[in-house]
């Protein structure tokens, strides 16, 4: 396996240092600006031959190992025609480990099994994004049919789907994107934590709660602890999109978090009305869920912050939800 400098990190000279990954403070790395390092970078980029390095094999191997430890090397061939070429480059970019094979993260996605409860405003877009990202196996759980009102803020569905079961429409849409993905559509209404558990196979890697029921957060919180599986809670509230990744043993329980941060349930007037929401907000909420799912499934990140983005003022609230 041939290794080279990560093109995505775009090294450049900055005074006494050579910077890699500039533009993202969390990804920036630096080494000393020496002739030896400059030449080694050019060699690893294929722009200088071995003889011009003036290093012994042992010296070269030691240098390469240090570059590897800094996460500066990759085996990515940057073939733009590959289905997941953009994924490989992205994984290479955000990977701070010594791993040199970004395709290994794609293989993890292909081997992943995700169950999505609620194929609605958030669940539809999450399902699509995960299939496009390369997740190999999905289970979709919902009992609803497509309604005209769904077309305003839910992806996948069109006018010709009105009256059809959401899980069946979604399954066919996803298979048109990737015919190799394994998808099971479950037409069932979930009304208890026992019913949630019923549809969780032992080999599931991730649970996504995008249902819109009064007690569903509590159900999934409890089941997550019982089966020791992570669950991602995605939600929206008018101008805000929210995400919370619950990882048993790593983060606090979702209900404990809500107990500290939620608004009191006091109403002066009747609050039963169509949700005040537009498609960009639900799509953003789905994006937050999908991004965290991909990071978690690949192992590139362990999400430990709950996030809320409010579009009316462009504020971002972050909460450390690690267990103390």
TrEMBL record:
<dbReference type="InterPro" id="IPR045886">
    <property type="entry name" value="ThiF/MoeB/HesA"/>
</dbReference>
<dbReference type="GO" id="GO:0005829">
    <property type="term" value="C:cytosol"/>
</dbReference>
<feature type="domain" description="THIF-type NAD/FAD binding fold">
    <location>
        <begin position="103"/>
        <end position="317"/>
    </location>
</feature>
<dbReference type="InterPro" id="IPR000594">
    <property type="entry name" value="ThiF_NAD_FAD-bd"/>
</dbReference>
<protein>
    <submittedName>
        <fullName>ThiF family adenylyltransferase</fullName>
    </submittedName>
</protein>
<dbReference type="GO" id="GO:0004792">
    <property type="term" value="F:thiosulfate-cyanide sulfurtransferase activity"/>
</dbReference>
<dbReference type="GO" id="GO:0008641">
    <property type="term" value="F:ubiquitin-like modifier activating enzyme activity"/>
</dbReference>
<dbReference type="InterPro" id="IPR035985">
    <property type="entry name" value="Ubiquitin-activating_enz"/>
</dbReference>
<keyword id="KW-0548">Nucleotidyltransferase</keyword>
<dbReference type="GO" id="GO:0016779">
    <property type="term" value="F:nucleotidyltransferase activity"/>
</dbReference>
<dbReference type="Pfam" id="PF00899">
    <property type="entry name" value="ThiF"/>
</dbReference>
<dbReference type="GO" id="GO:0008146">
    <property type="term" value="F:sulfotransferase activity"/>
</dbReference>
<keyword id="KW-0808">Transferase</keyword>
């Amino acid at each position: 396996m041939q290794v080279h400098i990560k093109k995505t990190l775009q090294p450049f000279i900055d005074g006494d240092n050579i910077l890699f990954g500039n533009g993202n403070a969390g990804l920036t790395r630096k080494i000393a600006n020496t002739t030896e390092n400059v030449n080694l970078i050019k060699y690893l980029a294929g722009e200088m031959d071995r003889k011009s390095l003036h290093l012994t094999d042992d010296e070269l191997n030691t240098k390469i190992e240090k570059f590897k430890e800094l996460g500066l090397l990759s085996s990515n061939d940057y073939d733009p025609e590959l289905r997941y070429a953009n994924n490989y480059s992205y994984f290479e970019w955000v990977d701070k480990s010594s791993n040199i094979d970004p395709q290994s993260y794609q293989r993890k996605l292909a081997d992943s099994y995700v169950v999505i409860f609620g194929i609605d405003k958030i669940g539809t877009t999450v399902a699509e994004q995960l299939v496009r990202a390369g997740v190999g196996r999905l289970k979709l759980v919902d009992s609803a049919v497509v309604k005209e009102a769904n077309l305003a803020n839910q992806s996948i569905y069109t006018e010709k789907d009105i009256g059809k079961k959401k899980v069946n429409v979604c399954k066919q849409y996803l298979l048109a994107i990737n015919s190799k993905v394994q998808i099971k559509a479950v037409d069932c209404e979930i009304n208890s934590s026992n019913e949630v558990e019923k549809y969780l196979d032992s080999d599931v890697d991730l649970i996504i709660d995008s249902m819109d029921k009064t007690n569903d957060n509590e159900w999934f919180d409890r089941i997550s602890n019982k089966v020791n599986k992570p669950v991602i809670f995605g939600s929206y509230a008018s101008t805000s999109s929210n995400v919370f990744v619950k990882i048993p043993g790593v983060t606090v329980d979702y209900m404990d978090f809500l107990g500290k941060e939620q608004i009191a349930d006091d109403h002066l007037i009747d609050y039963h009305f169509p949700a005040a929401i537009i498609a960009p907000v639900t799509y953003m909420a789905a994006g937050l869920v999908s991004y965290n799912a991909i990071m978690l499934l690949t192992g590139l990140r362990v999400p430990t912050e709950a996030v809320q983005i409010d579009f009316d003022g462009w504020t971002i609230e972050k909460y450390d939800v690690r267990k103390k």
